[in-house]
Design a protein that fits this description.
elongated; five-stranded antiparallel beta sheet; binds zinc ion; 36% helix; single chain; 12 helices; Alpha-Beta Plaits; Aminopeptidase
Length: 413
């Protein structure tokens, strides 16, 4: 068989996706495989078994990331394909899992085909991508971004610490500090993922070749005025925090039009008014602001513009304002050599494809800090994700898996 004719084993791939989808599933509510839960551990046991059944080398690093290795040689930089198997509560069966299972399938096919490879290959499942304990724990560990402070502070919404949750499963969180990989040990990183947006589905395309992953900043903003009687306080003697918030919300479109790019987005997704009674002027408005773009300079300019806008509005309404930065993630440009390898795979397979950006964060964002990185998207029906309604047609899954397979073959030879 010529290497151009290589294809994944569709039946085996489908059986694996279906088997993993049963682990942590709750009737009619989707999948609950949150990081280091019993269901997550069951998923890990399943993957380890599949790796061993395939006679690939199993390896678990300090952050409990699971690796399948083909032709491992620690002196030769490897080509890695990966994603995550943990889920949000009530998740679909493809977010993360698809990338891990397709990576494993690609390694199995390359092993069976006997194609001569010059570089070792790894299929990796990263720990806690979805954020039970903050998110991207596994890939951040590999990228050397996890600190002892992070390990001690990381907690889930029920107050269970990362250290405790890992210890309960027989894992030592401190070992994550030793999971870091040298940039020289990775030749390239490729992640196959569902798009989680509507673009490919609307355009009827099977493959998205990702050019950039958006960065974002997330603020919690507090506007403070004075709570007072809704009946006795004349309109011109108020410091109404909600009026300030409302005016700010209206200004979002103008700020984006003036300072953003066509890719910029800004969202107020959570609002709390205090004291929160119908007959009391809100003395305090606390709200989130999530701003995204693929260009770090534009993000900086937008941060400045939103700060100035808040300050002007606060002055006009007699309010004070302050904000705290909840997250600040730099955008990532995908590496040209990896993008070209994906383009070549799409050409070989003659698949309908387009280039696009990723609006969601992925493990690829962390690994891009230490290795040339690229991403392959397959369509999400109606753009739905983080829900049991998540769906991708089998044809598109097969197209994505074959694109990953050919991309890996090219990068490894
Ligand atoms: Zn994901």
């Amino acid at each position: 068989m010529s290497s151009v004719d290589l294809r994944v084993n569709t039946e085996r791939l489908r059986a694996d996706i279906d088997a993993l989808a049963q682990i942590g599933r709750q009737e009619n509510q989707g999948i609950y495989r949150m990081a280091f839960s019993d269901a997550d551990m069951a998923g890990r046991d399943w993957l380890r078994q599949r790796i061993e059944d395939s006679e690939l080398t199993f390896f678990q690093d300090g952050a409990a990331n699971l690796h399948a290795r083909l032709n491992w040689d620690k002196n030769v930089p490897s080509v890695i394909a990966g994603s995550h198997m943990d889920t949000v509560p009530g998740a679909g069966h493809l977010d993360g899992a698809l990338g891990v299972v397709c990576a494993l399938e690609a390694l199995r096919v390359l092993k069976e085909s006997g194609v001569a490879l010059q570089r070792p290959l790894e299929a990796v499942s990263f720990s806690d991508e979805e954020g039970r304990f903050g998110g991207m724990f596994g890939s951040q560990s590999v990228a050397g971004l996890v600190t002892p402070e992070y390990l001690h502070a990381a907690c889930d919404l029920d107050g269970i610490s990362l250290m405790e949750a890992m210890a309960q499963q027989g894992l030592d969180a401190h070992a994550a500090l030793h999971a870091q990989r040298k940039p020289s040990s990775i030749y390239a990183y490729v992640e196959l993922h569902i798009e989680q947006g509507p673009v490919l589905d609307r355009k009827g395309l099977s493959i998205g070749v990702v050019d950039a992953i958006t960065g974002l900043f997330k603020w919690e903003i507090r506007l403070s005025g004075s709570a007072n009687h809704a009946g006795t306080t004349p309109m011109d003697m108020r410091a109404d925090a909600f009026q300030g918030l409302a005016e700010f919300a209206v200004q979002i479109d103008r700020v984006l039009a003036e300072y953003g790019s066509p890719h910029s987005t800004a969202t107020i997704g959570r609002v709390e008014l205090k004291p929160g009674a119908a007959n009391v002027i809100p003395g305090e408005a606390v709200f989130s602001l999530d701003v995204r773009d693929t260009d770090s300079q534009i993000l900086e300019v937008l941060a400045d513009a939103f700060r100035r806008t808040l300050s002007a509005i606060a002055r006009r309404h007699g309010l004070m304002f302050d904000f705290s930065v909840l997250s600040d993630i730099a955008p990532v440009q995908c590496d040209m050599s990896v993008v070209s390898a994906i383009d070549a795979a799409v050409n070989t397979l003659q698949l309908p494809a387009t280039h696009l950006n990723s609006g969601a964060a992925h493990d690829a964002q962390m690994i891009a800090g230490i290795a040339p990185t690229g991403m392959i998207f397959v369509p999400s029906k109606e753009g739905r994700s983080h829900s049991a309604a998540e769906w991708t047609a089998w044809d598109d899954i097969e197209a994505g898996a074959n694109t990953l397979l050919h991309t890996l073959r090219q990068l490894a030879t």
